[in-house]
Amino acid sequence: MPKKEKRKRYRCQTAHTRKVCTNTKNIKEEVIEQALLQRFDSLYRNRKAVVHESVQQQIVDTEKVKHQLQRLKELFINDLITLEEYKKDAEQYNKLLSIRPITTHTVYDKKLEDGVCDPCDLRKENS
């Protein structure tokens, strides 16, 4: 006859040993796991949305800088600014463009390198 698997339950030790706490309920480990995974998933989705929004803002900012660089070029071509002014301002804009924005893929790849996996994978393994 196969042995019955013991199911873990959590309870307040003070309530059961000293009888001074009114929290006498037992909670199954599976219930705690599900609540934890749901909360973690919620936090992960919120964080993912924030990162996505930040990446979108960086894309917009990049397009704005490219547009300003184009306008600067037009000013120089139309002789409205000197070559020195153009070089100085163009250098500043190019520095802004050379900064590599952090994307969700960059963050995810870094986590994989560090051995941290996607929480969705955790849920699939436990299901």
Write the layout of secondary structure elements.
Layout: E1 9-10, H1 13-17, E2 27-28, H2 29-77, H3 83-98, H4 104-113, H5 119-126
Antiparallel strand pairs: 1-2
Instruction: Order the strands across the largest sheet as they lie in space.
Output: 1-2
Largest sheet: 2 strands, antiparallel
> Fraction of residues in helices?
55-70%
Low-confidence parts, pLDDT < 50 over ≥5 residues?
116-127
* N- and C-termini, Cα separation: 27 Å
* Strand fraction: under 5%
SSE order:
EHEHHHH
Q: Mind telling me the C-alpha Rg?
A: 28 Å
How many strands in all? 2
SS summary, helix count = 5
Oligomer: single chain
Shape: rod-shaped
Structural class: mainly alpha
Mean pLDDT: 76
Explained architecture:
Helix content is 69%, strand content 3%. With 127 residues, the chain is mainly alpha-helical. Residues 116-127 have low confidence and may be disordered. The chain has helices at 13-17, 29-77, 83-98, 104-113, 119-126, and strands spanning 9-10, 27-28. Helix 2 runs antiparallel to helix 3. It has a two-stranded antiparallel ribbon. The relative contact order is 0.09. The radius of gyration is 28 Å and the shape is rod-shaped. It contains 5 helices and 2 strands.
Features:
127 residues; mainly alpha; two-stranded antiparallel ribbon; 5 helices; 69% helix
Short summary:
With 127 residues, the chain is mostly helical. It contains five helices and two strands; from the N terminus they run βαβαααα.
